[in-house]
User: Which sequence fits this backbone?
């Protein structure tokens, strides 16, 4: 009696089903992963603006007023964020107020961050405002 040989390995159908399952999993996971990347990379802007705020507080203690230009803040006054994803600008119209902005550089992925490509920190007579929303500031 001849018995048929036992087959080993995977059939083409098995491989196709595995590829299909992997593709569906990736399609479901990719938007969540991209959202996670945007949030963590947004932290680059938040930390840069916090450094400006701390440097301004030190400048206020030493000189009695906020710095008028970013360059007056020394190391915290760099024009680009630490990871190089945002351009940092600052201006002041009065000795006790200033506004600092982090704008995503156009050639970086953060420029596509919906609603959070520009973060603004505004300090007016001790009152701090974070724009555009708390969602952008709490990665």
Assistant:
């Amino acid at each position: 009696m001849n018995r048929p040989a036992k087959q080993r390995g995977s059939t083409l159908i098995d491989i196709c089903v595995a590829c299909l399952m992997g593709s569906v999993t990736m399609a479901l996971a990719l938007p969540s992963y991209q959202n996670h990347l945007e949030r963590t990379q947004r932290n680059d802007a938040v930390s840069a603006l916090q450094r400006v705020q701390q440097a301004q507080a030190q400048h206020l203690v030493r000189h009695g007023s906020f710095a008028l230009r970013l360059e007056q803040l020394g190391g915290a006054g760099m024009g680009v964020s630490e990871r190089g994803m945002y351009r940092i600008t600052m201006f002041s119209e009065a000795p006790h107020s200033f506004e600092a902005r982090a704008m995503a550089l156009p050639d970086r992925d953060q420029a596509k961050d919906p609603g959070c490509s520009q973060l603004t920190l505004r300090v007016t007579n001790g009152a701090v405002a974070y724009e555009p929303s708390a969602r952008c500031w709490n990665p």
Notes: Residues 93 and 123 are 11 Å apart (CA to CA). The mean pLDDT is 84. Strands lie at 86-94, 97-104, 118-124, 127-131.
